[in-house]
Amino acid sequence: QQTPPTQIDVGEDLRLPPRLFATDRFPVRRLNIYSSPEILPFIRHVLRGTPEFDTIRQSPFGKLFDIPARQAPVSCKMIHSFLSRQLLCLPEHTLWTAFGGKPLRYGLQEFGTVTGLDCRPFPEGYHPDIAKSVVPGKDNVWKRVIGKKKTI
């Protein structure tokens, strides 16, 4: 006699907006979000000059070694857990996610707190120049990091 697989009730709250992904498509147990990028310099040190490191550098993960560890304090596991539990709601520039059946807001103010960037409203009378011309060669860094512009 086989035991049926254990079903875990994710506790979907029908009062919340619909989720971006199905409720059975993310971990329901405790998350280990305590990963950090400090391991990257260690891996670089140990594998430098080896074919294995060359393989990693040529893979999609190769760009991770271009990011200074001290500038990447946010856990990718935490970001993934936010996105996989994302709720579909307005305003569109605010991320709402559900943890433990409760909604959690992650907007521009919270982004500023986490990143340290100045996300306050623009001063009164400020009008950004939205018609700036593109200077040839100015964005070479971005082209090198993420490739040339592509239509998605």
From TrEMBL:
Species per Swiss-Prot/TrEMBL record: Brassica napus
UniProt-recorded name of the protein: (rape) hypothetical protein
InterPro entries: DUF1985
Superkingdom in the source lineage: Eukaryota
Coiled-coil positions: none
Domain DUF1985 stretches: 83-151
